Q: What sequence folds into this?
């Protein structure tokens, strides 16, 4: 039995190395990803995978199922973080919504539903009233949401998000940052499947250190 287990481990190790070599052949710095000035991460000893997104972005909407699938099998040494991008004043509504829902502990319940309401049902949800009314249909108390949305804690989160966005010099979404030092996106990789292959490659690259 021990011999069988050892053989399985050896095969899996060889497969992992093979995949890393395969990725190394496919992906190159400056093409599918780029090395950037190191920025601090927030996930301790875990490798941070950070996505900048906007609920109103159709590309982010189409990327979401790929991210969800990837999250179901991501390595244990990886921590995934989202930051809502704010390129224009009207994007603040969606960013504050994200952090308010996070504070209320209801984010996972409605994150994808917000995307669907905007892109599938063609509701812009671009005012606090519109967003609060929609969330009420999802069982979220309107008053509690509004209070969280307008809270000092959300002001602080927004400042941090804008500061982080500026530090990474983000100019589009969705953009993914791996461990504060590598940037990649769908426009760099061509497809979202390939984008996440690049993320896996960069995670493997950081894991080996």
A:
């Amino acid at each position: 039995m021990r011999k069988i287990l050892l053989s399985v481990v050896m095969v899996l190790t060889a497969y992992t190395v093979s995949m890393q070599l395969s990725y190394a052949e496919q992906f190159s710095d400056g093409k599918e990803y780029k090395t950037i000035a190191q920025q601090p991460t927030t996930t301790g000893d875990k490798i941070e995978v950070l996505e900048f997104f906007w609920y109103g972005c159709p590309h982010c909407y189409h990327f979401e199922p790929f991210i969800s699938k990837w999250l179901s099998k991501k390595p244990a040494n990886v921590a995934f973080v989202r930051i809502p991008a704010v390129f224009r004043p009207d994007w603040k509504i969606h960013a504050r919504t994200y952090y308010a829902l996070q504070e209320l502990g209801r984010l996972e319940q409605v994150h994808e539903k917000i995307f669907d309401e905007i892109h599938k049902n063609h509701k812009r949800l671009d005012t606090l009233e519109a967003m609060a009314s929609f969330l009420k249909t999802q069982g979220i108390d309107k008053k509690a949401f509004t209070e969280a949305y307008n809270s000092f804690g959300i002001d602080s989160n927004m400042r941090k998000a804008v500061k982080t966005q500026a530090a990474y010099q983000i100019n589009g979404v969705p953009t993914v940052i791996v461990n504060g030092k590598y940037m990649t996106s769908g426009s760099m990789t061509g497809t979202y499947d390939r984008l996440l292959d690049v993320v896996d490659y960069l995670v493997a690259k950081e894991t080996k250190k």
In short: The CA atoms of residues 2 and 8 lie 10 Å apart.
